[in-house]
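G., the chain you wanted modeled:
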Amino acid sequence: MISVKVHRQGLEVLVAACDSDIIGKTFRSKGLKIHVSEGFYKGDTGDEDMLVNRLQMATIANLVGKRTLEVATRHGFVDPGCVLTIGGIPHAQMTRMI
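Predicted structure as tokens:
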């Protein structure tokens, strides 16, 4: 399952999405660290269709986890070459110019 939380600030729609099983965990490697905090990422839980729907409305996205990044790259939201791996977990950010 994927957890998706939508944050709105002015005209920006930030989608924070991650694999549900990594919420609350911290990953580190090569001087990088990411904490998948409950407050930022925990939201609606769903499947690929839900994530794609939310990413279509996003102006910014913060994505963490194997399943989450698999969906985002397959649907063209993130270039696979732009995905970082931190502690074995893929992470990417997306921005859309409107």
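The beta strands are 2-9, 12-19, 26-29, 32-35, 44-46, 60-64, 84-86, 89-95.

Shout if anything looks off.
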